[in-house]
């Protein structure tokens, strides 16, 4: 089972904040340490699910030494959070598309906050659901 390092931060008049160095932007909080840990597991699972839906790769967990080498991480307390068991593996494929269609895909994906891979994965899932 893969585990990721989460950093718990606490200011005097705040809840316990949790961040994941391997997943910038994946943050959560809890009013108690137990709640913060539970929220961290949920946040990590949702973030990894989102990466999979967007067709993006899930990074390998960083070592504690690597995480703590960054000055901004030294104020946090490191905990291990298990990755969800069913994190799908991304696979690189090579496809051929007309140049104008690829440009349209890229414009659409960018304007909707998606990657090209994420858009293509969503479009394929949508098409398959319509046929079912």
Q: How much β-strand is present in the residues?
A: 15-25%
* CATH fold category name of the largest domain: Double Stranded RNA Binding Domain
The total count of helices amounts to 4
Question: For the report, how would you describe the main beta sheet?
Answer: 4 strands, antiparallel
Shape label = elongated
By helix and strand content, what is the structural category? alpha+beta
In the CATH scheme, the class of the largest domain would be Alpha Beta
Q: Give the domain tally.
A: 2
Poorly predicted sequence stretches spanning 5 or more consecutive residues: none
Question: What is the annotated CATH architecture of the largest domain?
Answer: 2-Layer Sandwich
The end-to-end distance, rounded to whole angstroms, is: 34 Å
Approximately how much helix is present in the residues?
40-55%
Order of helices and strands: EEEHHEHH
Total strand segments: 4
What is the gyration radius calculated from CA atoms?
Answer: 18 Å
Name the strands of the widest sheet in spatial order: 3-2-1-4
